[in-house]
Specification:
By secondary structure, this protein is of the alpha+beta class. Strand 1 and strand 2 form a beta hairpin. The chain is globular. Bound molecules: calcium ion (2 copies). The site of one calcium ion has 5 residues, from strand 1.
Length: 115
Amino acid sequence: MRLGHVLVASAVAVAGLLAVPTPALADAPCDGGFFCAYDNPGFQGELMRSNEGPGAKVNVADDRTESGVNNTPYVWVAMNRRFLLPDVPVGIWLPGQSIPGMGSFGNKADHFDVN
Ligand SMILES: [Ca+2]
Ligand SMILES: [Ca+2]
């Protein structure tokens, strides 16, 4: 019985650790009206900031983006360039959305399409 309680408590603790909330926009280091891309998870190491609008293709250092903040009213799509194949999306940011880590899609984007 006692062991059961310990196991339940451990499971709850692990679940709490996994449920990492997206930081509030006010905490993200990206100015209002801009999209910012970062070299590392957690919005560290800014690679690019832009306030381009719909239709723009915004360049970023190849294969480095791992997090981003979208403080624009537009949709930003991270695109990976492929040899002899169409570009493929590796991340999408809705207006106002922050993504603290792209996981296995990180370190692939070569430019962003703004929609
Ligand atoms: Ca990186
Ligand atoms: Ca790439």
